[in-house]
Amino acid sequence: MLARLLRKPGRMGPVTGLSSRLLVMTVFFVMLVEVFVYAPSVARFRVDWLEQRVSAAQLTVIALEATPDASVTVELANRLLDQVGAHAIVVPPTATSVRRGIFRDMPPAMDVSLDLRDPGFFTLISDAFGTLIHGGERVLWVKANAPSLVGGRVDLLIDEAPLRRAMIAFSWRILGLSLLISFLTAALIFVTLRWMIVRPLREIARSMIRFKENPEDASRSEAPSARSDEIGLVRRELAAMEATVRQALRQRARLAALGEAVTRINHDLRNILTTVSLLSDRLSGSDDPDVRRVSPTLMAAIDRAVQLCQRTLDFAREGGPLLKRSRFALAALVEELKPILSAPNGREFTLENAVDPALEIEADRDLIFRVLSNLGHNAAAAGAARVTVTATVEGGQTMISVTDDGPGLPPKAIANLFQPFAGAGRSGGTGLGLAIARELMRAHGGDATLVRSDASGTVFRLRLPIAEGAAAPQ
């Protein structure tokens, strides 16, 4: 339904709307419940109707026994039978009494015998529907308890047609009442759900449509709801999601602008740095020992400037890195990091390679080198004296841990970790190193995460899926 709303804003058919479906479903389910209520109700009505005839028959027998010779004229007998609605009323004989009762001159033959003395629940329901289905043409012989008569029993011979007409009239009354209850209940539920659910959902849908039309317009944001139920939770989460997406779009626009600017100046900057590099090479051959001494430092500074420019350009460029996978020993790659990692200001720094020499991974060698280099440079710049690289294989994943003994990351850096230009852990940093490391690991189908960072040091974990068919080291 939401997708339909997003395709056609503001348009909703009278039948396809959620409100209409709720109305129809409510009426349907209430009527379904009424069907289950109707079956025992019509069976009870049938028993009550028959028991009324039994009560009238008891009174007739009592009046008959009050006569001097327990007999009446044929005309009076017919009138009494008409009053009861029966063709015959019979009191079966007992050990102390004979059979007695009144009959019409030519009573019809019995079709069905009914015993009301100990009926079962499902038997009553089955007999009731039998009366409705068979058309009322049968003649019933009804056996019932009669506590006020000698022998405690009375039998009646009656037509089924009056009973069936009364049951049909009762059914119509039940149907009318059920429809009234259904529509009243449906109307109340419809209004309640429309106010509590449908209306807020439509507002959420309209907010999503407005956000889709112009995500960067803050005036189109979903207002956080004060409701404490699921609808309120959805609106609050939607408002938070829109704010996050808007912030990401703005950051992406800034990065795109930055990438465009760096692209434009990159060519000129490289030419300038190339000229400076050539001059630095000539300075390294100078006879002045002081000039020769500062030349390597100058060259290193120029190289770092070129690398920073290129790294910023690579990060701002759209599209993920192109992987050139190969299979190589991870320990050998870590060994290549040792000559290029050093602490600033000449501090002592050690890279410990604790990776199993037999462990091989399948990945882009240059990109994994770049990831480890970024983490190593960050650790050295943060004040670490030792960085240890270990690796294990766990559940189809190669887990590479980079542990340092530095002072740990500041809380602000941890809160914005892996975010470019926001997650720098030291003064003057850009935060691009960790952002690029995570991007490169995710390009391999893995990830880069922070395990811990405290006064004892910092641990980063790199997760790299093992390629199919690759064997783990024995």
Describe what you observe in this structure:
The protein is an alpha+beta fold and 474 residues long. 54% of the residues lie in helices and 16% in strands. The chain has three domains: 18-180, no CATH class; 230-316; 325-465, Histidine kinase-like ATPase, C-terminal domain (Heat Shock Protein 90), CATH 3.30.565. It has helices spanning 2-7, 18-65, 74-84, 121-133, 161-213, 230-284, 289-316, 330-335, 365-382, 411-415, 432-443, and strands at residues 88-91, 100-103, 112-115, 139-145, 153-159, 325-329, 350-353, 360-364, 386-394, 397-404, 447-454, 457-465. It has a five-stranded mixed sheet with strand order 2-1-5-4-3. A hairpin with a 7-residue loop joins strand 4 (139-145) and strand 5. Helix 2 (18-65) crosses helix 4 (121-133). The chain is rod-shaped.
Per-chain topology:
Elements: H1 2-7, H2 18-65, H3 74-84, E1 88-91, E2 100-103, E3 112-115, H4 121-133, E4 139-145, E5 153-159, H5 161-213, H6 230-284, H7 289-316, E6 325-329, H8 330-335, E7 350-353, E8 360-364, H9 365-382, E9 386-394, E10 397-404, H10 411-415, H11 432-443, E11 447-454, E12 457-465
Parallel strand pairs: 3-4, 7-9
Antiparallel strand pairs: 1-2, 1-5, 4-5, 6-8, 9-10, 10-12, 11-12
Helix pairs in contact: 2-3, 2-4, 2-5, 5-6, 6-7, 9-11
